[in-house]
């Protein structure tokens, strides 16, 4: 498996009581090249089981990141013909400029072309994390993530842990881990941890939520502490 991450910064503003209020969030879209040969349908099932879905590509930045991060001749992405129109695996419609040429799409590097879904190829999966640059308590952050995305971030391995931290400028932030016992916000079991030495210590018997620090290590904190946080956008299937 090969991993590349692409970071996008978004701003949103609105007027409230005659004042302009703005906030920002960073979207971290992580692509995983899976060097296993599968049909398109099996590849989608694999991606939905282990990540979010087969790769959705939204911009030139995504394409450039994939070209610089991976080396492959052919690989499935999440685009399919239903057959009324081309759609991404999660249901959104692509922009036509991404095809390499009119008619039978071209076979230039990074270009797309259509082939039988039954053929076996390697493939690209992706996941999406959002760094929300608004400070909240752990439970308020959880509520925000569940309302706007899927949940607070679940971190399943060291590679994800490092990539998530490398794409934020904050010294520490909430992740989706809380106790008792330690469980991810989405109720999935904890198979990977990266606690700082001496942590978790439940100081003063008030520290029941986990945050990530500047050294990529985790610490337990009082859940009422306000800090920025990371949401995870999971797969929402559209058939």
TrEMBL record:
Q: Which UniProt keywords apply?
A: Membrane, Transmembrane, Transmembrane helix
Give residue ranges for domain C-type lectin.
Answer: 26-126, 121-232
Q: Which PROSITE patterns match?
A: C_TYPE_LECTIN_2
The answer on whether this UniProt entry bears the keyword Magnesium reads: no
In terms of SUPFAM superfamilies, this protein maps to:
C-type lectin-like
Q: Does the keyword section mention Transmembrane helix?
A: yes
* Protein name, as recorded: C-type lectin domain-containing protein
Species of the source: Cynoglossus semilaevis
